[in-house]
User: Which sequence fits this backbone?
């Protein structure tokens, strides 16, 4: 009977985080607040929500400003919360690149869009080179422009992944990599 009573005993702690700053060298600086609930029974379960109020993160030397975000702790794996974050970077050519990160941490998705609207190749070229034609400001013909955009997209995938992997590895102990 004592073992049964101990097995059904519930310990619950609610943690009001107040305002918290998370910083990592020059790559991450985020201000957040939220509340988490920790329940210990047969298994430990963590739930709650952390709101990202403001911040910045460095991606390939570009300072993205966090517009808004939410981290929701749900399910049985607290190391795999749901993340919804929107951040932007204003390129030297006046283009605003918007990055939207969503999904569970272990299967996170990154979507890029821009104002004015650019193709994905042009967005990646803008992030890498500061211009959508990938030529560091040099003029080019139409065919050279298309080739530069395609080449930039190919190179950008690997370069951006390296930057994201470096960023993520310092924030969480979960084994995550981007492709």
Assistant:
């Amino acid at each position: 009977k004592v073992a049964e009573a101990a097995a059904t005993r519930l310990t619950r702690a609610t943690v009001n985080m107040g305002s918290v700053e998370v910083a990592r060298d020059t790559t991450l600086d985020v201000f957040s607040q939220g509340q988490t609930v920790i329940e210990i029974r047969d298994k430990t379960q963590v739930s709650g929500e952390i709101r990202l109020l403001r911040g910045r993160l460095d991606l390939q030397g570009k300072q993205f400003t966090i517009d808004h975000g939410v981290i929701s702790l749900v399910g049985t794996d607290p190391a795999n919360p749901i993340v919804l974050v929107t951040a932007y970077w204003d390129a030297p050519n006046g283009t605003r690149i918007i990055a939207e990160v969503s999904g569970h941490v272990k299967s996170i998705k990154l979507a890029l869009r821009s104002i004015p609207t650019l193709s994905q190749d042009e967005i990646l070229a803008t992030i890498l080179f500061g211009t959508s034609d990938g030529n560091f400001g040099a003029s080019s013909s139409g065919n050279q422009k298309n080739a530069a955009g395609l080449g930039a997209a190919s190179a950008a995938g690997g370069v951006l992944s390296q930057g994201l992997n470096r960023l993520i590895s310092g924030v969480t102990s979960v084994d995550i990599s981007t492709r």
